[in-house]
Amino acid sequence: MSNEQQVYQKLITDMNQHMLVADDNRVPFLRQILAKLGHPDQAYKIIHIAGTNGKGSTGAMLAAILQENDYHVGHFSSPAMLDDRKQIRIDGQMISYTAFVQAYQLINDHLSADFAATSLSIFEWFTLIALVAFQQAKVDFVILEVGLGGMNDATNAISAPLLALITHIDYDHTRILGHTIRKIATQKAGIIKTGSTVIVAPHQKQMTRNVLRTAANQQQVPIHFVTNIHLKLLAHNFEGTKLQISGPMIPNHTYQLGLIGRFQLDNLATVLSAVTWLSQHDVQLNEQRTQRALANLKIAGRMQIIQRHPTVILDGAHNSDGAKQLVQSLQQLAPNQKITFLLGFLADKNYLEMLQSYLPLAKTVYVNTPSQHQRALDKDELAKVIQKHFSFSKDHLFNEADAHTSLQVALAHAEVDDVIVITGSFYFIKQFEGDQHV
């Protein structure tokens, strides 16, 4: 282990692991730190992305398109699948130990002598380190994905971004964000700042649109709702998606999308609308390069195929809306086919609603406990919930020693055309990210 890696590991170990996003004084505090650092967030153009589902895919598409068009791009997203440093990427590569430590030390040097490093949560540290590292790397654009909510999220400490993108909004993190769509949308709308332009993904609830429109009017910024999309699906299988798409901000083109899942089409429409807006505002983007970027894109943990024949899919759906979208995609990709599910949830998620989506489609279910997470739902408790609340056969419910044993047993019993889906939480599926067979 190198010296820089040892320093990095110690920094991570010493960081405050608590979530502080529920505290409404965090963003002003972080803005003071950014001011002391000379506003690194103003050194590049930022596209800030908030929403319940779709942030990761939307951000990945935009980053890929900008990179394919020869722009230097910083990308901040969470959670990481395998290595926490993957939350901070520069031109597609995760931040080096050296760059991470250098950014940390620069920040630490600008803080007062009586400041304790543990005053910041680990997510706040990663956000600040990303913003500084992107400045040091002299990137042109930064794709900045909100961690949780929007208004009180650490990423919202930035100055007004070039674009604020709002992906699909639904119920999630209700204990923190609120139990109504109005309250949740209000939190997401918190990223809308004077000086930006807002683009909103299609198929939002009317209340969501009302809240976002009001916030945009208050900040006196233009807001574009992605609507009236004309879409013709030409091919949709486990190899990818081919479609023809057009809309008010989308010229009529045919795209081969490397991503699978019907839910990606709304994300694509949002991205292409943003691409049109950027092109209209002096960002040079070539259509052929855009098409190439989308065709070659794969995203860890989003309908990610790690094996074929039988097909094994990792998907990070972690709320009821994501679960419904996953099921719709599976029904289109494997019609009339029963699916084997490996499930692992966090205890504070609405896993009952997710189970309502998955179990009618399930041939067999393997219950699992997400590893190394204090909010994990124990697999024995999950088995009890399935038996108590759902008329699911005990003969098709399996409780193996660990997640990898679950997959080995599932594969041993699978036919060549079967589909095995590993889902429930990013913190569960990340256990399999290194197990790719294709």
UniProtKB/TrEMBL annotation:
Family per similarity comment: Belongs to the folylpolyglutamate synthase family.
SUPFAM superfamilies linked: MurD-like peptide ligases, catalytic domain, MurD-like peptide ligases, peptide-binding domain
Residues in Mur ligase central domain copies: 49-274
Protein's recorded name: tetrahydrofolate synthase
Residues that span the membrane, as ranges: none
Reactions this protein catalyses: (6S)-5,6,7,8-tetrahydrofolyl-(gamma-L-Glu)(n) + L-glutamate + ATP = (6S)-5,6,7,8-tetrahydrofolyl-(gamma-L-Glu)(n+1) + ADP + phosphate + H(+)
Record's GO cellular component terms: cytoplasm
Keywords per UniProt: ATP-binding, Ligase, Magnesium, Metal-binding, Nucleotide-binding
Start and end residues of each Mur ligase C-terminal domain: 301-426
Molecular function via GO: ATP binding; dihydrofolate synthase activity; metal ion binding; tetrahydrofolylpolyglutamate synthase activity
UniProt cross-references to InterPro entries, sorted A to Z: Folylpolyglutamate_synth, Mur-like_cat_sf, Mur_ligase_C, Mur_ligase_C_dom_sf, Mur_ligase_cen
The organism's place on the tree of life at top rank: Bacteria
EC number(s) stated in the UniProt entry for this protein: 6.3.2.17
Enzyme class: ligase
Native source organism of the sequence: Pediococcus damnosus
Record carries keyword Acyltransferase: no
